[in-house]
Amino acid sequence: MRRYIVEVVIGIGLAAVVLGFLAGLDLTPLLLGGGFAVLLKLALDGRAPLGRPFEAISARQSKGVLPQVTFADVGGQDAAKRELMEALAFLKRDSLSKKLGIRPVKGILLVGPPGTGKTLMAKAAANYTDSVFVSASGSQFVEMYAGVGAQRVRRLFKQAASLAEQQGKRSCVVFIDEIDVLGARRGSHHGHMEYDQTLNELLTQLDGIDSSREVQTLIVAATNRPDILDPALLRPGRFDRIVRVDLPDKHGRLRILQIHAKGKPFAPEVDLERIAQETYGFSGAHLENVLNEAAINALRRSSEVIEPSDIQEAIEKVMLGEKLDRTPTAAERRRIAYHEAGHAMMAEHNRPGAVSSITIASRGNALGYIRQSPTADQYLQTRDELVAGIQVCVAGAVSEELFLGQRSTGALGDIKQASEIAKRMVFAGLSPLGIVGSDLPGSILHEAVTEIIRVQEQVVRAYLTEYGAQVRAVAEYLLEHDSITGEQFRGFLERLAS
Ligand code: ATP
């Protein structure tokens, strides 16, 4: 009926415009005003062309389907899952909570790096509590026009509650991703009161949640910048549960790989545990991507099973980016080969079995690279381990100098990394300076860092000189074959030694 009325009004309006035009009237101000009103209406409704489309409720949810994700689909994150489930107890055991007079948890903040499964956890929370799930991203509330963001916040909460009613559910989970975009400290957006108004509206909505309502609302928000959030958001009674969702440890990575490996045909030699070990620092999203890329590699080879080499290739792609068609000159290739051979020899010397692969094909920003496999997740490093790290960093440049006569700019990144390690040594009290304060003068720090690196360069020079034949052989092999796996590399060294 409403649509019919709108169509009639539009028809009459158009007819009036045409008549006015025929009668010779100047209709420009009227048309401009009308156009502006339409744009404003679209913005308030959260539709293009002003800003990103605002779709608080996905098609799947609007059909009334609850999120299918359960906590079993979230790999690792055992502590975070436990904490989240504890916080959800008031929704799970609603009547007992009411009897005990427990103030409902209104907001749960999930804090952690991108791709660690925060959205998954929010969906699992909705599933666990049999709630309707409605999601939006912080950036969807931000507009140039005063009042638009606040209006969208109100609409989001209203939609969530009415959807829950329609579905006959007693609770809804409103998930706001990137809450830092709208929840940053008030007054931090210079001359942009719109942000503050939006945040004020969110606070009002949070305060309006109470246990006497028919439909219970729980807000789950995610951020990786909790430090910039307005303190008003974090005070008790608002987002007072903070759950850390960190990068997964080895056990977590294995669980995530197992979850995403389901339904994919792997060759029997594929060892997920080994992949979990090699992918230190990867998030759940990275791991999912590795297995997906590996399947794509198998497809490219027209193979029906995913081989270990497909996975190795995928790990390198996820780590460093797509292989590039950059073609270095013959002299540059030679330099890259000797540089990487130097890194690899030193890495293998410091920790036998460390090298996973060596490549001189460009990928992402790297002209060539060696990949080392960590033995186990480490949260602490000893002095010897830090020194070994510096040695591996400088070995590329030292190898160029020893075998090609001089160094090149190829070592820029390595030197930066070596300096960072040396600085950590200084501030951890592991340098000849002993314990130092954080106010250590820059000149003394500089001297200490260069001295640490200089001493290690000497050690590396002595080692690579002694094993010059091996460095040359590895570099020449790389020039011919582009890359070598860790096993091939070790076999090669053994053959040269015997
Ligand atoms: P962002 O902060 O960038 O929004 P996020 O932490 O919300 O990221 P998700 O969107 O939940 O991350 O994860 C992206 C994808 O990565 C998921 O759809 C899933 O495929 C995979 N993933 C991430 N973490 C996990 C995990 N712990 N278990 C299983 N899969 C995971």
Describe the structure.
The protein is α/β, with parallel strands linked by helices and 498 residues long. It folds into four domains: 2-41, no CATH class; 52-244, P-loop containing nucleotide triphosphate hydrolases (Rossmann fold); 250-320, Helicase, Ruva Protein, domain 3, CATH 1.10.8; 330-497, Methane Monooxygenase Hydroxylase, Chain G, domain 1. Helices cover 56% and strands 8% of the residues. The protein contains 21 helices and eight strands. The strands form two sheets. The protein has a five-stranded parallel beta sheet with strand order 2-3-4-1-5. A three-stranded antiparallel beta sheet has the order 7-6-8. Strand 2, helix 8 (148-167) and strand 3 form a beta-alpha-beta unit. Helix 17 packs antiparallel against helix 18 (412-427). The radius of gyration is 30 Å and the shape is elongated. It starts with a helix and ends with a helix. The model is unreliable at 46-65 (pLDDT under 50). The structure holds adenosine-5'-triphosphate. Adenosine-5'-triphosphate (ATP) binds at residues 74-77, 114-120, 177, 222, 256, 259, 284-285, 288.
